[in-house]
């Protein structure tokens, strides 16, 4: 076979291997080979339904397509003498059933709508995989949060001890971010799942095709509305990569914390051996390599988005070959995001949190000073700014005991706290991290009763997101199973 039939007419075939390799998308086309067969099946069913193709040709072609579907596209279709898998597979079909029949499949379409349809189909799968993975990660975070509502730890701003919080509160912050990531992926999915097939090169076609039929057979929500847009746009790829990039920044921040928390300085967490590596020279080392690689993958995904946007931004309407160069960025980006989330869920669910270390750090550096200032406001009538100054002055003196506070209040505001009723016991209670946390029970706060409510509410949202993902996946699975059934019926008719 090994001959690009597309060059048989207008062009000579005297190209160097370098040029063939340079022009061919073959190395990335294995991502869409399976989809290309499904696209062919749907197109052929429609051509037959509309009587655009004869019965014998349709039957022979469908038989060959079914054998490609079952055994894979033949190896020779991947030769780089072909621009892409679409041309290679067409040549393989013609080699199988002859040009009289095999040469009829490409009626009413172009590789421009063909490739866009294939990319959207594969991307659907990848997005659903990402959506399921982010749900699994959220489940891990929520389960850990439920178990650590009473685990007091220091909260940080500027990576300085700031105020006590709980591990549950910290993990719920990440879960909230990943919940929004799910929303962005699901939103992108809706726009990915529209069908370009039938747009042909860009100007649609004069054959009496049925675009709604092919869209339905392939599990798409609807045919795309404008045939030029259908082949020209890759905004669906950009927004998918964008959603993945944002999601990976969240994953990367969590990984950064795992790196910091697992260091000997901090010791808040130990990653399981399965998620750690050692050193080739230092036998004592246990390194958080999975977290580090994932921090880097965030850069890989952002780079894929940068590559894809830069490729797209200067292109005139409609299809331009530059778009071929975008597709590998898409696969690299979504694959890195998807595998990262799976690994992250495993890393967290097998990690051991050192709750004693967290508790021991939770009141370091006067981190309950804010609560003490609040108590001076709520119970002893000081304006907040005055209380802030009094407590700050006492911290500067190096102690938050009654005597130091009393002196600070005299100095800063000329008032006596003991005269207003402040006692050493009240000061001690205000400085207790657990009491300070329990006070913070407004919506979204770290108090154990509030995080219990939050975990329950988030579990409800997560269950809905899981069900939605499963529903979308089922719809695709059902459509594609029906497609193959109908293909068999045609082949055997
Ligand atoms: N290999 C091309 C791509 O990946 C496919 C289709 C269009 N090719 C063309 N020469 N018009 O974008």
TrEMBL record:
The keyword Transport does not apply. GO terms for biological process: L-arginine biosynthetic process via ornithine. InterPro entries: Arg_succ_lyase_C, Argininosuccinate_lyase, Fumarase/histidase_N, Fumarate_lyase_fam, Fumarate_lyase_N, L-Aspartase-like. GO terms for molecular function: argininosuccinate lyase activity. GO terms for cellular component: cytosol. The keyword Amino-acid biosynthesis applies. CDD domains: Argininosuccinate_lyase (cd01359). Keywords: Amino-acid biosynthesis, Arginine biosynthesis, Cytoplasm, Lyase. It comes from the Archaea. Pfam families: ASL_C2 (PF14698), Lyase_1 (PF00206). Its EC number is 4.3.2.1. Residues 366-438 form the Argininosuccinate lyase C-terminal domain. Residues 21-303 form the Fumarate lyase N-terminal domain. It is found in: Cytoplasm. Belongs to the lyase 1 family. Argininosuccinate lyase subfamily. HAMAP family: Arg_succ_lyase. NCBIfam families: argH. This is Argininosuccinate lyase. The lineage of its organism: Archaea, Methanobacteriati, Methanobacteriota, Stenosarchaea group, Methanomicrobia. The gene is argH.
